[in-house]
């Protein structure tokens, strides 16, 4: 047997650099970091690169931004390229380590514009981040956008805490809901639930 | 702000092509597909590219192999590059779609040499595969290898079934345990639990 595909690569769309060009390299308060996530999430769905989700990885002490990620499921054609995965991969690629919480390294924060889905929850567990900051955690995201976020355990925050990850929620919550509402009101979006359960222009008969 | 890292890429190590060169391109029975996963998993940890885990994505009807993946956490430096993620990304990159279960496509199987971890569980949910075949599902993997597999819901199989994914377990189970036992008995391995909870040569003081 000969393998036809042995590599894959993922890159941030060009508009991301443009969008954050005027953002300061260090953002000392958590609201400023979440505001970047909100801006990227909103532009991401408008640009058609993926769903309305974005993430910012930073030095938890100084607020220095280490990487950003947006949902790239549509742009990359890979179902796993959620914002958290993209941001964590870029932070680890930049740092040259699979453990952002390794010995001698400063604590790292991941800020996301909603609670991670079932997959990203696990991705956070293995990444080595010390803090997860989210805009909110309820099922509003599913009601407003139509996305399936997957089954979560009721004790998901305690499970993170047991592995050294603090969770802070409700940071600029209303702004997150505004983005999801805008997304949900569009008639031309692709909701990329897998297994033929997606809906939207590109999923019709493709 | 200027982003320093905007791209990442992942490729299978060269030994994978060599290892499967004599494997038939279509493997009509599930044991043959699992046997490939077992071979790749065992060689992966011996080669030092990652943990003792591998996955095979195939056409569920014909057994045609669409992609293979091995755990590349160490080789890639990315904590999310578990075998399932690598195999699913390569299958989707090859097929040119984020939904392996999209309309008009043949059903796809993912065979893995143990139950997916918390993250890979979610990755399976979003991938569009119609069948998940695993060698086993108990906590033997954690006892034998030292890896944290993360919190799972007791109803994880029912949650997959509700999204159209059938699960078949205990396919060549003993062979999986042999590999985990061999791995666990090594003194020179890196157990890449994140957050400074890893153990092994490279995690000491790095």
Q: Can you offer a commentary on this structure?
A:
Two copies of one chain form a homodimer. In chain A, strands 3-2-4-5-6 form a five-stranded mixed beta sheet, with helices on both faces. In chain A, strand 4, helix 5 and strand 5 form a beta-alpha-beta unit. In chain A, helix 2 packs parallel to helix 8. In chain A, 37% of the residues lie in helices and 14% in strands. Chain A has 206 residues and is of the alpha/beta class. Chain A contains eight helices and six strands; from the N terminus they run βααββααβαβααβα. The first copy, chain A, has one domain: Cytidine Deaminase, domain 2, CATH 3.40.140. The longest helix of chain A has 18 residues.
Q: Class of chain A, according to the CATH hierarchy?
A: Alpha Beta
| Largest sheet: spatial strand order of chain A | 3-2-4-5-6
Average predicted confidence as pLDDT of chain A: 94
**Fraction in helix of chain A:** 25-40%
What's the total number of strands of chain A?
6
Largest sheet of chain A: 5 strands, mixed
Radius of gyration of chain A: 17 Å
Assigned CATH architecture of chain A: 3-Layer(aba) Sandwich
Oligomer: homodimer
Short summary:
The first copy, chain A, has 206 residues and is of the alpha/beta class. In chain A, 37% of the residues lie in helices and 14% in strands.
Provide keyphrases for this structure.
homodimer; alpha/beta; Cytidine Deaminase, domain 2; five-stranded mixed sheet; 8 helices; 6 strands; 37% helix
């Amino acid at each position: 047997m000969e393998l036809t595909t042995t590599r894959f690569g993922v890159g941030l769309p060009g508009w991301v650099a443009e969008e954050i060009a005027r953002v300061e390299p260090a953002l000392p308060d958590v609201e400023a970091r979440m505001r970047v996530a909100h801006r990227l999430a909103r532009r991401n769905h408008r640009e058609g690169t993926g769903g309305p989700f974005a993430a910012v990885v930073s030095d938890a002490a100084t607020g220095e931004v280490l990487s950003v990620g947006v949902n790239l499921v549509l742009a990359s054609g890979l179902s796993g390229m959620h914002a958290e995965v993209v941001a964590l991969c870029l932070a680890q690629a930049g740092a040259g380590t699979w453990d952002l919480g390794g010995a001698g390294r400063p604590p790292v924060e991941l800020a996301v514009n909603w609670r991670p889905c079932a997959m990203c929850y696990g991705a956070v567990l293995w990444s080595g981040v010390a803090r997860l900051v989210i805009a909110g955690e309820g099922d509003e995201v599913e009601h407003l956008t139509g996305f399936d976020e997957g089954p979560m355990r009721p004790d998901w925050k305690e499970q993170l805490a047991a592995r050294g990850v603090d969770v802070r929620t409700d940071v600029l919550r209303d702004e997150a809901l505004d983005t999801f509402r805008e997304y949900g009101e569009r008639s031309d979006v692709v909701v990329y639930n897998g297994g033929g359960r997606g809906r939207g222009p590109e999923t019709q008969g493709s």
